[in-house]
Amino acid sequence: MASSTPIRPQAKTILGADIGGTKLATVLATPDGEIRHKMRLPTEAERGAEHGVARLISMLRRNLNETGTDPADVIGIGVACGSPMDAQRGIILGPPNLQSWNPVPIKAILESEFGIYTQLENDANAGALAEWLYGAGRGVRNVVYMTMGTGIGGGLILDGRLYRGSNGNAGEVGHMRVVDRDGPRCGCGKRGCLEAFCSGPSIARRTREALAGTGESMIVQLAGSLEAVSAEHLFAAARQGDGLALHLVDETAHYMGVGLANIIQAINPQVIVLGTIATQQGDFFLDRVRAVVRQETWPQMAKVVEIFPSPLGDRVGDYAAVSVILQHLTS
Ligand SMILES: [Zn+2]
Among residues 31, 75, 102, 295, which is most buried (max CB within 10 A)? Predict the structure, then answer.
């Protein structure tokens, strides 16, 4: 039980499992990225880890059965999930939206169930692998991937491989400070983190703060009420020319651009891929971020870096899980 099932590099398919707080997604794919079979079911986190794991196993079993795939024809199972985790030993340690999954030795469970090599990776690192192997970072050696969703996660591909750092925490770019002192309190406990300005909930909070006391605004009209204001309403109002909304979008781009400039100065990447909100808003937002980056970064580094929305979009989770295995076949 303790010894790991070996990877089968000669096999023809990869299984991927994306474990989230609201949904479970599994895929059976080929190494060149053809998704042959896909399953998606609610996690039902409130029913506990045992229920979720049993559901995940039945989904993977259906991926195999409905494509007539023998487990011996599978290279490995890639599993992407939120941190904290012991990625090396393949143990999920109760991420914020899946607290009952603590601990879940998913590697040992799936290897004993299927006899297929299994590897666990945190979802931001797995997303970075996906953008590098299938998305905007293909063929490039230095890629930074950042999400702009509920939080700001990140993953780094350096010199053609995932960079994990000294104890697996590299790439937590959302928690670099982007103001010199104080700043809003971040969920991590620090003040002035990038995430405290530019995650979806932080953008919404900053917008509501700016709106308080200003009376009528297009942002509130779109949202229906001040309490309902989200980042989406802000961008929609900015696209229609609302002055306050444009100011807040510029401010968001400023913090994002300062954060990216810090990363660029440290690691000199060729490609930065921004997911979620940045992908939804596209060049309307990214052109503003690019302008800040040009201003805040040394020209010799600014000229080699390109900033893209994620071409994988909301399919990134499927490719992320598969990429956790595929990375072993490409280096
Ligand atoms: Zn933080």
Answer: 75
